[in-house]
Amino acid sequence: MSKAARLLGVVQPTVSRRLEQLEMRIGARLVTRGAEGVELTDVGERIWTLVQTMQSTAGDIERVAGQADQAEAGRVRLTAPDGIASYWIAQQLPGFVEANPAIKLEISTLQAGEKPIDPYCDVMLQYTPSKRMDLVPKDLATLHFVPFTSQAYLDTYGRPEGLVDALKHRLGDLESYEEETRDAWPSEAQAIKKMMKPSLTTDSSSVLLEAVRSGSVIAMGPTYLARVFPELIHLDLDLVIPVKLWMFYHPDQRRITRVRKVLDWLDEIFDTARYPWFRKDFVAPREFSDIETVHVRGERPKPRIVK
Question: Mind giving me the DSSP string for 216-245?
Answer without folding.
Answer: S-BEEEETTHHHH-TTSEEEE-S--EEEEE
